[in-house]
Structures are given as structure tokens and as C-alpha cells.
């Protein structure tokens, strides 16, 4: 049974409210994570608690239990001069920005208007209801080394 400290492998498909596939574990390797350590969105993690090998589940995750609501404070305009002048700025371009508290947050450029650049630091899936279809393909205990590293080793995880 899946419990805190289990290594769980999943085949999954993630759709948005309109039924479009946003993400999926593609044919080859399933996705693997350590249960109870916040590596997947909270709503999916709690739905998988106590699940068993071979279980298939459809899980609907609200924005609060997913990637959060859209935070308007993470959307703002900055001067073009904040970017390297030789850099071509276009919508969709991602970059890291340092916040006042020193954290590095990924931002995306939404729009360039003359000298003003509109940027957005929300997760691309913020504000969205997530529809997961998952199948549990492996459940095992995490090794001591995996718990120390905080990630899964081998299939579906890190190779090093
Ligand atoms: Zn490692």
C-alpha cells in the first residue's frame, strides 16, 4: 500500500477542464516519486495515499490542491532595459528572476510593448483544475540513499 516513504511509479495522463491532454508519462518510462514528500501536487498525493499496485484512479484536483490560484502580484511590467540588449524578447520566453527574499522564480514573458515587458511568474497550470488518470505500476519502500537524496533512483527517477 502507498504510504509515506513509498517509491511510487505511475503511468498518468493530465487533462485540463476542456479535456485537452496537458501532460502524460509517455510510453517508455513511468514517472516515479517518493510519496509524502511534496514531489507531486498535494491533491494527487492525498488521493494516492493507501492505493495499491495496479490501482487505476481518476482524480480531479482543484487549483488550491494543485498549482495554486493565479497570483496577480506575480504579473507585472518591467523596463526593456532590465534584459540584456542583445537578447531577442518574445512572448513565451522563460527566464529566472530573483525575488526580494533572494528566491529564484521562473518567469515567462507574456507580451512586449515598446519599452515595456509584461512578465508572469505564476506556474503555467496555476488557476487550473487538473484531471489526472493514473495507474500505479510499482510500489516499494524508498532506500536509505533515496531518502537522503530526496529523489528516486533508477527507472523513472535519477540515474547517477
Ligand atoms: Zn540521488
List the helices and strands and how they pair.
Blueprint: E1 6-15, E2 21-24, E3 31-34, H1 42-48, E4 56-61, E5 75-79, E6 94-98, E7 104-113, E8 116-120, E9 130-141, H2 144-149
Bound molecules: zinc ion (ZN).
Describe this structure in words.
With 160 residues, the chain is mainly beta. It has 2 domains: 6-67 and 126-149, Chitinase A, domain 3, CATH 3.10.50.40; 72-120, Thrombin, subunit H (Beta Barrel). The chain is 8% helix and 38% strand. The strands form 2 sheets. Strands 1, 2, 3, 4 and 9 form a 5-stranded antiparallel sheet that branches. Strand 7 and strand 8 (116-120) form a beta hairpin. The protein binds zinc ion.
What's the Cα radius of gyration?
A: 19 Å
Question: What is the CATH-assigned architecture of the largest domain?
Answer: Roll
Number of helices: 2
List low-pLDDT spans. none
Globular, elongated, flat, extended or rod-shaped: what is the shape? elongated
- Based on helices, strands and strand pairing, what is the structural class? mainly beta
Task: Note the main attributes of this structure.
160 residues; mainly beta; Chitinase A, domain 3; Thrombin, subunit H; 2 domains; four-stranded antiparallel beta sheet; 9 strands; 8% helix; 38% strand; binds zinc ion
How would you briefly describe this protein structure?
With 160 residues, the protein is mostly beta strands. Helix content is 8%, strand content 38%. Strand 7 and strand 8 (116-120) form a beta hairpin.
